[in-house]
Every structure is written in C-alpha cells, then in structure tokens.
User: Fold this.
Amino acid sequence: MHALLTTLAALAVGLPWAHATSYDPLKPPSYPLAVRSPYLSAWIPGNDVESLPTSQAQFWAGNNLGWTVFARVNGDVYSLFGVPDAPAGVKTATVTEATYTSTHSIFTVEAGARTLTLDFFSPVSPKNYLRQSLPFSYLTVTVQDGIACAVQIYSDIDNTWTGQSNHSSWSYSAKDDTQVFQISAKDTATFSENADGQALWGSAVYASRPWAGSSLSTASGPGSAVRGRFVSHSTLTGTHADWTTDGVVAFVHDLDTFSDTRTVTFAVGHAREEAINYLGATQTGYYRSKFSDTADAASYFLDDYTLAQLESNEFDKLVSNTGDAAYGSNYSDILALSVRQVYGGIELTIPDESLDTSETRAFIKEISSDGNINTVDVIYATFPIFYVLSPDYIKLLLSPIFDYMGSSAYDQKYAVHDLGEHYPNATGHLPSGESMPIEESGNVIILTYAYQKATGSGDLATTYAAQLEQYATYLNENGLYPAAQLSLNDALGALANQTNLGIKAAVGLTTYGTLTGQQKYIATGKDWADKIWTDHLGTDEQGTHFLLQYGTPPWFLAFNQYADILFDLNAFPEESFNATGEFYPTVRAAAGVPLDGSVGWGQTNWQGFVAATVDGDAREMFISDMHSYISNGLNTAPFSDRYWVQTSGSNSPGEAYAFRARPTLGSHFALAALRGANTWL
Assistant:
C-alpha cells in the first residue's frame, strides 16, 4: 500500500492542481481585475485563482465576462487565464502565486520553460482627475527571464462586456501604433442597464500596441476560428469580420526568441460619452476635456502606463504604511483590498456641452443594494477614505446634492437621501424613495466639516451656509426624540426614538456649532449627548451599552459616535467609549459583532467606524474579525460589507450576506483617519 501511495503521489506532481498556490497577503473572496467604474468592474473569485487558466472573469454581479489569455512557449500553447474550453492541443499553465495590493492583482504562472505574470492594474489616482477618470484598466503580461525560446502572447475579449451579447456590433481602428477595438450593444437606450447592472450604451474597449521586442497582429471574428488560428499559426490574420454572437476581438504579440524579461500591455475599458443624466443635463467623463475620441483616450492611457505605474508604487506603499501604522498588517490587508472597490464605484464628470473642468462633479453608485445615485448615507459610510486620501471628493460628491436640494425641485426641510432612484440617472429624489431625515441632515453637516477640516477650505460651508443652517435647525427641532423613520440600519424599518438617530443629532449639532463657531449648537449637542448616555435615555440602567430605542432593548453598535472621536468634539463623555469598548466583546458572535442584538449579521463598514471609537481588546477584536472574514475562504463575491456572524438557517458564520462590490468600504479607513487627513499629496 505504501508503495502504491508513493507512486500515485509521484504521478500527481505532473498535474496542474498538484502545485500549491501561495497567496500574499491572503486569499480574498474576490480579486479586482479591472475595476474603474460601476460599468468597468471585472473580478475573479479567490477560490478560482488556483484554476485561473480555466476560470472566467466576472462582472461585479457574478455574471461571466469573456476575457482570455494564451501563451505559446517554445511551440507549445498554454491557457493562462479565462479559457474554460480550450482548443485541442492547448495545455494548462500552473498557477504558483497570487498577490494583491491597493492597485494591482498579480498572478504568477508556469508555462513550460518560462514563468509569466499577469498583472491586472487599475490605477487609483484620486488627485489626478485625468488619470482617475480614464475608463480603462491595464493587463500586463510579463515573461520572466529564462532559457532562450520563442514566445507569443494572445488575448481577447467578447461581447459579454456590452451587457447585451446577442445583439452587438464592433469596430477596429488604429491611432498611430495603438490598435483599438470597440464593441457596442445595438438598439438600446442611453442611460439604461441590463438586469446585472451592466451599461447597455457606450462601448467595451480593448486596445494594445507593439512593445519593445514584439510585433502585433489582430483579428476579430468567431472565437473558435480566431483562437484556432493562433494555436496553429502563432499570429492573427489582420482581418476584421462582421460581428457574430460567438465572436471575439483579439491581439497577438510575437516576442520572437529571447531569454531576458519582456512585457506586453493591454488596455480594457468601458467608455460612455454620455455618462450621467444630471437633472436633465448630460455629464461626460472628465477625461473628455482632453480626448473627445475614445481611441485617442485609449492611446493616451497606454502612453501613461509608466507614470501610472510609478505613482501606484508610491500609492500602494502609502496605503500599506498607513494601515501598518494605524493597527498592523491585518489592518493594512483590509485597506488594500478596499481601495479599488471604493474608487471603482465613482465617476468624475464634467458638463457634456461645455466640457468645463471648473464644474467637475463626482457620482457614486449604491452598487448591489438598490442602485441609487449619490446616496448621502453611502457617501457618509465611505468618507473616511476620502478624508485620508482625497478630501476634495467629499466636495465633488456633495455639491450636486446641495445644488439639487437648493432648487425648486426639492422642498423638504431635511436633507435628501439620494439624487435618483437608479444610477446613472441623477434626475432627483422620488417622493416614493427612501427618506432618512435625521440621519442625512446630520450626515451633510458632518461631511461638510470633514471636507473643511481635511483641506482647510471653507468654500463648501460658505457656499451652502443657508442649507446647512436649515438642516441644523431641523436637527435642533426634531433630533432628541426622533419620530418613526429610517436610520442607517434601514433593515429595521422605521422606528421612533432610535438611539442611533439621537446620537447622530447630538454629534451633528456639535459639529455644526464647531463648523460655524456658534456655541449654542455645541451646548445643545453636548446636552443631548449627556441625556442619552449619562442620564440613560438611550442606555441600559447600568450605563454599559446603548439601546436600539430609548428604554427598549436590544443593544446596538453605536457607529454614529465616530465623528465625535474623529473631530475631537468631546460631545459624549469618555466613559461612553470606555464602557462600550468593554461591552462589545461580551456580545461577539462566532464570526464577529452583529449590527445589533436583534440580528445575526454584521456590517464591516460600521464595525470599521466602531473600531475607531474603542481601544484595546475591543479594537483588536473588530480588526481581527474583519480580517478573518475576508480570508476564511467561504465567499466569492467582491468584498461584501454585510456578512453572517452567527448561524442563521443554512447560512454559516463568516458567509457574505446580500451585498457585493459596494463602495462603502471607505469606512474601513475610519481608524486610519484618526492619524491624520489628506496624506496623499
């Protein structure tokens, strides 16, 4: 028997799955591949990485995207990525390593005599609006040095990127040495999506150019024919057939014979000239102030690769060092995985008619939950990352909201919940939509002060002073004893006298008083905080924790205290933070602390806020639980911020629940924000 096992083990060495893949810093639920906007959002589940050559990229919603990479090495063809059904004679490369940073997902594969890396690079350049707004990502394939041999790299995409794969068209063009394919859905409406949230207008883009030591050939046509041509001839024909339902657009880089290290780079994207419908006026991408033509923009994007890469190296270091300094490597792992998801949920725009960059705006999609555009509480949940890295984004996101609230189209005394029911249509809040009067009124005040404190600029507060005063007045008149209404924990429905809302009102008024220098609001906010905590209006009788509603259990996670700590307002007594820090570990479930005592799930965004309001063992617990959640191997969705912390029916502790790919992960920077603002210069 021992001899048989030894023989089987020896035979297994030659099988692709016999080589263990190493993961650095961990194997996440899903790796970002090309994540730059709500419509350019390609991922690969972490559990699929070991089988990367046969596993497909996925849109954030989980539907497959056709995106393949082959390599011919010394005459043998290997599938490297995205080939579930390889042509006859194609071998499967072996995946040995997978790494992620804030901007890169890098996979190392062995293909015969050479080692190759696939570097999926989505730049995050929050202070370079041109670079950040370009709707493309890079895929760089590097052949590492080794024995001298001939290598060719093939890659294609198909019309699954258009959101309508059964009725599309494509085009080919050349800009200098850059060759560009565009694929578009046909007979669809502008500003419309399919059921998976993909844009049905605009075009999917794939571009490349010859790199040092390579020649480039192209083709479009039926996938089996185009791929078969590469397998049999190593090059493509340069012919571009009409669209077909099983078609692909493809490139081949012929690197000839070499032994040193060589790279080729592709640009993949989704471009929409008409990007956002903002109150009936079309917004276009910021980058169109420089490039009206998509092919020109793609060519510039490839030109910019070296500078973008240099910036990303420094950016990745900053995020890693920020996390390490704030709370160690587990925390920096969480931050690095969060960054692309946040900025990939936002688009920077300018008016399509004037292309005036002085009117730059930002729009954020409430991905996967309900699709709202510029939801105020989503911006609030996200703002810590902006506070640390790009505080101007707070202004860019808030300005269109303030402008709408100041128009005749909105007549409420409290702040609006969103700018529209569904992205990209920022056409105004529907009367039938969600309202969170206390929550959102407090949020816009807190966000305005966060912008001012991080930048030193009072322009936002000055421009919208009358509206801010209106919302402070609303809080003052309605905040201590909130009427039945929704809070950020909207799964509970509308409840009266929610302690969470009382806290938001108290902190919001204290913030407004600090922002404007009006002592009366500071005094009121602190008085309410004292009533809620010290006089036990919102706590248990012993004063050990906050209650969900005044005088009514269960307990809840007091994430609305965060701004009190961040801005050093001293609204709530220190004892409230000490006591809750002692309490939360006592209610921790198997995989973390629930959002409140009535549910079996938690949310990492609010856990991130609370981790910044407590210290010692409680802070360690929150960070450790979040890290365990993203590394437990139970999930495949892009970082869901809601997950089960205890067994619930068929759901196990540590499994994701409901949400995926939401940009609210900016909340994970809440602890880092305590160390300083505006650190990316």
Notes: The first strand starts at residue 22 and ends at 24. Residues 1-17 have pLDDT under 50 and may be disordered.
